[in-house]
Automatic annotation (TrEMBL):
GO terms for biological process: DNA-templated transcription. The keyword Magnesium does not apply. Residues 388-407, 432-465 are annotated as: Disordered. GO terms for molecular function: DNA binding; zinc ion binding. Residues 125-197 form the Xylanolytic transcriptional activator regulatory domain. It comes from the Eukaryota. It comes from Aspergillus turcosus. InterPro entries: Amide_Lactam_Regulators (IPR052073), XnlR_reg_dom (IPR007219). Keywords: DNA-binding, Nucleus, Transcription, Transcription regulation, Zinc. Pfam families: Fungal_trans. This is Xylanolytic transcriptional activator regulatory domain-containing protein.
């Protein structure tokens, strides 16, 4: 207790600031992390005789403080995520609260603490995400038989905690190129349904907002799609079945539908990037529409004053949108090139706005600016205009077939073939910036080093001997089509082995 008191673990801001932070949490954060029963928490929060867990309260204040904006508050210096993070971690390390559900709720909230590259590894996103999953499995949240003896309220909270950990596991793996920690085949707990979000406040007569419940339900549907081959069909099915109140358009903007559709368009862009540079014109057109839609969504959020409240995964969406647009700057149509440049500039503007909430967005913005200078654009525009002139004079055919590399095919190693989507993104960035590295000077070297632990692709593998700033030698010997063809061959061979396992030994 002396140590916790020395670390000010029990100190809280003024009542007015605490009330504001709790309100921010349940308005902007709880729908993304629906692990707390709002009405039960607020009932205790308003009762000095039976207050909520100090561990959970400090965790709520920690995540809400990132979105707290009050220039008139005299306490602003002490209202920061890092300030509260130290208190929450001290309480957790001291095992001050022993209730398993409360501890899990706090760990889930600790899992979104992110101030910079260092917070991705040691005691950061990956640490708390893995710890939350391990604790949840230890207490059996992934097994349906453990829910039989629970009350309806406790059962709903457990399911929401488990599926929040599940979606976070998928989101973190996709954003940073890390392996999944939850095997779906080990889980028997039923999927979430709308009734799992039912909460009712008897004092005010209010119940849970249905839109936020549908938002999380649709997010879990999206995260359960399997495999790139099924992803296009899965996206189409999701789009057709998406509830009308969550279908986003600028004319009827809604914060939660905007986040949901931003995630949808990000997956569309990733499908395109997996096929680069041999994607068809149809795929390129679809990817361009998706990337510009992400920018449009961010601009709409900004115009409504809501971009500053978006979760950290919006940064990953901005990165994928930027890389998708940047990969299409070899376009041979000047008008399209102008549209790409305009959207790239808008993307950078949105990253600057996001940097006020998420500091790492500023580092990404500086890195991306080195790739979109006016000289580079003018050179590409001149080339595109020249090609356009040749086509107009009939000197060049407008072939719809993508160019294929003539590099000799070498069968890649399996562990190098199965690259996370975001590592492909990083490789594309590295390929583009490699040509400029000699002319950028120390600033480029510094930014290129810093981006290794950012969401564009991906933390260095601890077992990897080569630094991430080097382009994978495999990509010098093989074009992307060869890698994908090889992967398909490996999958087909694996299926053949499975089907013929009883008929003989396969070498």
């Amino acid at each position: 207790m002396d140590i916790l008191n020395q670390r000010h673990a029990f100190d809280l801001p003024s009542q007015a600031v605490s009330d504001a932070l709790v309100d921010v949490f349940f308005k902007w954060i709880a729908p993304v992390l629906p692990v707390i029963n709002r009405h039960d928490f607020m009932r205790r929060y308003r009762n000095p005789q039976n207050p909520p867990s100090i561990l959970l309260l400090q965790a709520i204040l920690m995540v809400a403080s990132r979105f707290y904006h009050n220039p008139n508050s005299s306490e602003n210096g002490a209202i920061s995520p890092r300030h509260f993070y130290k208190k929450v971690k001290a309480l957790y390390d001291a095992e001050y609260d022993r209730d398993p559900t409360t501890v899990l709720q706090a760990v889930v909230l600790l899992g979104i603490y992110w101030d910079g590259p260092d917070d991705l590894t040691e005691s950061g996103i990956f640490y708390w995400s893995r710890l939350g999953i391990a604790l949840a499995q230890e207490h059996g949240l992934h097994l349906s038989e453990n829910y039989v003896s629970l009350s309806a309220t406790q059962s709903r909270i457990w399911k929401r905690i488990w599926w929040t950990l599940y979606t976070r596991d998928r989101a973190v793996a996709a954003a940073f190129g890390r392996p999944l920690h939850i095997n779906s085949e080990d889980c028997t707990v039923e999927p979430l349904i709308e009734s799992d979000f039912i909460e009712y406040d008897e004092q005010t007569g209010t119940s849970t907002d249905r839109t936020t419940a549908l938002f999380f339900l649709q997010s879990t549907e999206d995260s359960r799609m399997k495999g790139a081959a099924e992803c296009e069909l899965g996206l189409n099915e999701w789009l057709v079945s998406c509830p009308s109140e969550l279908q986003w358009r600028q004319s009827r903007h809604n914060f939660w539908s905007a986040l949901l559709y931003s995630n949808f368009y990000t997956i569309v862009c990733q499908l395109h990037l997996l096929q680069t540079p041999v994607s068809s014109k149809e795929t390129q057109s679809s990817a361009f529409h998706a990337a510009t839609s992400i920018v449009s969504i961010m601009e709409t959020l900004q115009s409504k004053g809501e971009l500053k409240y978006t979760p950290s995964f919006i940064i990953c969406h901005a990165v994928v949108s930027f890389v998708t647009l940047r990969s299409q700057m070899e376009a041979s149509t000047p008008s399209l090139l102008h549209a790409i440049r305009q959207n790239l500039a808008a993307n950078l503007d949105m990253l600057e706005v996001l940097s006020h909430t998420w500091p790492i967005a500023g580092m990404l913005q500086e890195f991306f600016r080195t790739m979109t200078g006016p000289e580079h654009f003018e050179r590409m525009l001149s080339t595109a205009a020249e090609k356009c002139g040749k086509r107009a004079r009939g000197e060049e055919n407008d072939s719809s077939s993508p160019l294929r590399s003539s590099a000799r095919f070498k069968r890649p190693k399996l562990q190098q073939v199965v690259l996370p989507q975001t590592r492909v993104v990083l490789q594309i960035l590295q390929r583009e910036t490699r040509k400029q590295s000699n002319s950028q000077g120390p600033l480029h070297d510094k930014l290129n080093t810093g981006v290794e632990s950012m969401p564009s692709g991906v933390l260095p593998d601890q077992n990897r001997s080569t630094p991430m700033t080097d382009v994978d030698p495999l990509l010098d010997d093989c074009d992307a089509l060869a890698i994908l063809q090889s992967l398909r061959s490996i999958i087909d061979a694996g299926n053949s082995i499975t089907n013929e396992s009883g008929s003989g030994e396969v070498s």
